[in-house]
């Protein structure tokens, strides 16, 4: 039996004993992955067999209609789709593009792929026709599942697919809705050894062209356990994230995490206004909310607080966090904000302690069973307080297998026993890790190395700043200088006086040499398709223009 025993998580109660919660975050150990793990067999169908009427997914359509999918309903639907995909000629190991909106059919499609040992390749729904064709080519896809409205973007991709399924059908595409309504025998589950390729995600392309990251069956298992077991997730919990289905956060928050713990996922289609986000949190009784820092800041700035009595945790990852945001969100929502660290290539392996005072850049301590540390250029672990590269031990079971290239898995960047993340950081005497920035985002100015995150954290503490980004700008004397791109809060107007005030503000909060010598007021910041601010584009524009 792979799934944990069902348990009550008391979702209606905000954690009152944060000391106990903090100990659980740090001390709970996920079990070692089994030698063979098929998520559909060992999680979904186990729940469907013993708790068929328990809620697995609550869907809210773009028009506001609700749909309830129990574990039994989800298991039946995904098995029927799996049978159709098998009949279409797909076999274990084939890559399948999953290009679907935020509806329960996405969970159906992902589960059907995993049932057969197919390798689902979730793709962000905002990508263009050419970007989709690139992903199809890079991973060598042999099939696709898509929302019907997204089918036209396959115009230049997938002519040789063995199977194509669309949510409500399309010319040359099978009708997924009709398939799952038609009874048919479930196909056998594929055997999935721990190191078998099971899942591919493309990186956001923040440091170059998007890369296809291959995760093993053991990696899927780990995503179902941490950090969810540490957060005490279980039956009765409802977790929500607004992440696009093409990102790892959706996989972890809306599929692997809740189902592995017997909880339910909330998936909401269409554009979601800030006002609607807070309303849904309250009305649907969300107990765990996964959101990036930008989303939380937007809510704080734009929507009056309302009671969220069932919210137990907010989990944030993917963007740098500030102490001010952690404190303000806790007051606003009534629930603690915990921060985790991970990448497309890695599990979420750290969590901040809700009992500890939040500090700028803190990403928490490694959860039990994870080895995340800081090394120098020779691969030696650095002492407390020294900056280096954040790395994972190569024996971490949640780590990627490698990157897909020309039909095979190739190794990721490594040094000795370490997987290299390309992120810079340091650790304190208590073992807490702190994020500085991407290695290629670090600014080298007059012999100083300056991480952009620290400067951004300082700027966002000024009342005029809604959001900002910091990048290198060329300078004849210093080679590079720090330049800040600032989006102002409503009611503020950019001026030389405000620029000077912001510069002085930074000097008061952090080492004066780190202050932005250049500052530009902008109406928006460039972002990757995942919604992260792209410092790379800002830097490139600075150096191209000059």
Inertia-based shape? globular
The tally of strands reads 28
Helix content: 25-40%
Task: State the low-pLDDT regions, or none.
Answer: 1-17
Integer average pLDDT: 90
Class derived from helix and strand content: alpha/beta
Distance between the termini: 62 Å
Number of helices: 14
**How much beta, percentage-wise?**
15-25%
Radius of gyration: 23 Å
Largest sheet: 14 strands, mixed
Write the layout of secondary structure elements.
Elements: H1 18-27, H2 39-50, E1 55-60, E2 66-70, H3 71-87, E3 95-99, H4 104-116, E4 119-122, H5 129-139, E5 143-146, E6 163-166, E7 174-175, H6 176-181, E8 197-202, E9 212-216, H7 217-225, E10 238-241, H8 248-260, E11 264-268, H9 274-283, E12 288-290, H10 293-302, E13 313-316, H11 323-333, E14 337-341, E15 350-351, E16 362-366, E17 372-375, E18 388-393, E19 402-405, E20 408-410, E21 414-415, E22 418-427, E23 433-438, E24 443-445, E25 448-450, H12 452-459, E26 465-475, E27 479-488, H13 496-509, E28 518-521, H14 535-545
Parallel strand pairs: 1-11, 3-4, 3-5, 5-6, 6-7, 10-11, 10-12, 12-13, 13-14, 27-28
Antiparallel strand pairs: 1-2, 8-9, 9-19, 14-15, 15-16, 16-23, 17-18, 18-22, 19-20, 21-22, 22-23, 24-25, 26-27
């Amino acid at each position: 039996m792979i799934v944990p025993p069902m348990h009550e998580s008391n979702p209606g109660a905000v954690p009152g004993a944060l000391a106990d919660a903090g100990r659980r975050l740090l001390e709970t150990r996920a079990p070692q992955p089994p030698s063979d793990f098929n998520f559909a067999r060992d999680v979904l169908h186990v729940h469907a067999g013993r708790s068929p009427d328990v809620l697995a997914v609550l869907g809210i359509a773009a028009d506001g209609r609700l749909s309830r999918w129990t574990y039994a309903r989800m298991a039946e639907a995904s098995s029927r789709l799996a049978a159709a995909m098998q009949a279409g000629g797909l076999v274990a190991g084939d890559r399948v593009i999953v290009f679907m909106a935020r509806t329960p059919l996405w969970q159906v499609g992902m589960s059907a792929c995993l049932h057969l040992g197919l390798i689902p390749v979730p793709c962000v729904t905002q990508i263009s026709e050419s970007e989709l064709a690139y992903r199809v080519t890079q991973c060598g896809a042999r099939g696709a599942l898509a929302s019907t409205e997204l089918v036209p973007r396959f115009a230049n991709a997938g002519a040789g697919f063995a199977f194509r399924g669309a949510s409500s059908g399309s010319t040359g595409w099978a009708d997924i809705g009709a398939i799952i309504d038609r009874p048919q025998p479930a196909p056998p589950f594929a055997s999935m050894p721990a190191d078998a390729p099971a899942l591919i995600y493309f990186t956001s392309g923040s440091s170059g062209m998007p890369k296809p990251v291959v995760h093993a069956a053991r990696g899927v298992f780990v995503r179902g356990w941490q950090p969810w077991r540490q957060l005490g997730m279980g039956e009765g919990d409802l977790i929500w994230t607004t992440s696009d289905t093409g990102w790892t956060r959706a996989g972890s928050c809306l599929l692997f995490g809740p189902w592995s713990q017997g909880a339910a996922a909330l998936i909401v289609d269409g554009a979601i206004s800030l006002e609607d986000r807070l309303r849904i949190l309250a009305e649907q009784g969300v107990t765990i909310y996964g959101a990036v820092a930008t989303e939380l800041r937007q809510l704080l700035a734009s929507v009056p607080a309302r009671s969220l009595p069932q919210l137990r945790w907010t989990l944030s990852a993917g963007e740098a966090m500030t102490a001010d945001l952690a404190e303000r969100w806790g007051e606003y929502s009534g629930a603690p904000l915990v921060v985790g660290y991970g990448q497309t290539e890695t599990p979420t392996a750290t969590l901040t302690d809700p009992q500890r005072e939040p500090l700028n850049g803190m990403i928490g301590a490694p959860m039990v069973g994870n080895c995340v540390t800081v090394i120098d250029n020779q691969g030696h672990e650095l002492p407390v307080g020294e900056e280096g590269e954040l790395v994972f031990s190569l024996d971490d079971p949640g780590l990627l297998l490698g990157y897909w290239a020309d039909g095979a898995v190739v190794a990721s960047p490594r040094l000795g026993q370490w997987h290299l993340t390309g992120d810079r950081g340091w650790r304190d005497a208590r073992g807490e890790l702190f994020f500085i920035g991407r290695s290629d985002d670090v600014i080298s100015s007059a012999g100083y190395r300056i991480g952009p995150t620290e400067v951004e954290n300082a700027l966002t503490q000024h009342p005029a700043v809604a959001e900002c980004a910091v990048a290198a700008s060329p300078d004849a004397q210093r080679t590079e200088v720090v330049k800040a791109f600032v989006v102002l809060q409503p009611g503020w107007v950019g001026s030389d006086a405000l620029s000077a005030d912001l510069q002085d503000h930074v000097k008061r909060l952090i080492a004066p040499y780190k202050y932005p010598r250049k500052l530009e007021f902008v109406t928006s910041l460039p972002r990757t398709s995942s919604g992260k601010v792209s410092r790379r584009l800002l830097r490139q524009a600075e150096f191209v223009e000059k």
